[in-house]
Structure formats: structure tokens, C-alpha cells
Amino acid sequence: MTRVAGPRVTLRAYHDDEAPILMSTWADAPWFAPKGTSSRELAERVRERIRRSGSFTDGVVIFAIESEGRLMGEVQARQPINGLPPGVFELGIEVFDHGDRGKGVGAGAIVSIARHLFDDEGAHRVQLTTDVENAAMRHVAERLGFAFEGVLRSFMPEPDGPHDYAMYAITENDYRERNATWT
């Protein structure tokens, strides 16, 4: 299992005793528990996510974000088989409690996982997408040196219809120039 320490955060595998937090966080998340998911199915999905966390499995690595001695969220790096070229990774992040957002936890997790991908996993490009309306995430991406590459129109299915998403990326060369300034 990989453990990655970085600015303000540690990325690590989930602990078994964190299952209740994950169940309550994702019980109503359509991407994790689609309508009609039973509590038994939800519990099984959470157990599987905990089991798979901390190392690459089927093209995905999932890390718990720990800060100030507690679980604050999750970050993933995805490189789906036949979904992205070798060396290209897509990031996803969620800070669970709205009260923990805007305090550097998300930025610290992105820095930590990007460093891990470039330094240990052979990345030459790391990309992320976010809703075009997510000004906070867009600001974090730009502040960290991820370049805005465009808008993916009608990209993410949502209950009110597909949303446009902004695409950002940082290349290995960009990373080598920016890494020393990331704190």
C-alpha cells in the first residue's frame, strides 16, 4: 500500500473503521449509489472501495485524504485500460464536509497525488475536469499550474441534464518547473 505525505495532507488507504463515514457520505450520491441501491449493496460497495484503496487496481488508485488527524475526503487517479494513453492520468477529488473546503486540503491532495504520479508512476500528463461553475476548483487548478484546455460541452450527466466541464492539465515539463513552488 502506498502512503503519500504532502503539504497539509497525507494520502493513504482507507481504514475499515471509516466505513460508516463513507456510507453516510455516499448514500445519496447517484454515481456511487444509484436510485434503488439497497443498504446491503451500499455497504458492499464501501467495503470494496476500502479494500481497493491505496494501490492501483484495474487502472484506478483511490486514496483517503487525511488532514489534522482525520479523514477529510478522497482523491483518485484514473488511467482506465484503453481509456487513456500510457502516462496520462485523470484526477478526481472530493472533500466531504463543506466546512473543510477552502482551507487548502484539496490543493494539498492534488499536489501530493500529482507528485506521486509524475515521480513514481511514469506520468507525462495529469488532467482534471470540473464543472464550469465550480470557480473554487478552477482557481485551485490554475494556481497550481494546470493549464485550462477548453470546455467539454454536455459532458457530465446530472439530474437536471448534462453539465459543461472545464478541462485542465499539467505536463511533466510544467510539473518540473512548478514542483519546487508547490507548498
Top-tier CATH class? Alpha Beta
Number of helices: 5
* Biggest sheet character: 8 strands, mixed
The best one-word shape is globular
- CATH topology, which one? Aminopeptidase
Distance between the termini: 25 Å
Poorly predicted runs are: none
Q: Which architecture name does CATH use?
A: 3-Layer(aba) Sandwich
Written as H for each helix and E for each strand, in order along the chain, the element string is EEHHEEEHEHEEH
Q: Per DSSP, what share of the residues sits in E-state strands of 2 or more residues?
A: 25-35%
Query: Kindly state the mean pLDDT as a whole number?
Result: 91
| Estimated structural class | alpha+beta
CATH superfamily, by name, is Gcn5-related N-acetyltransferase (GNAT)
Overall number of strands: 8
Explain this structure to me?
By secondary structure, the protein is of the alpha+beta class. Helix content is 30%, strand content 31%. Strand 3 and strand 4 form a beta hairpin. The longest helix is centred in the middle third of the chain and has 16 residues. The model has no long low-confidence stretch (mean pLDDT 91).
Quick overview of this protein structure:
The chain has 183 residues and is an alpha+beta fold.
Topology (elements, then pairings):
Elements: E1 4-5, E2 10-12, H1 19-26, H2 39-52, E3 60-67, E4 70-78, E5 88-95, H3 105-120, E6 125-131, H4 135-143, E7 147-156, E8 163-171, H5 172-178
Parallel strand pairs: 5-6
Antiparallel strand pairs: 1-2, 2-3, 3-4, 4-5, 6-8, 7-8
Helix pairs in contact: 1-2
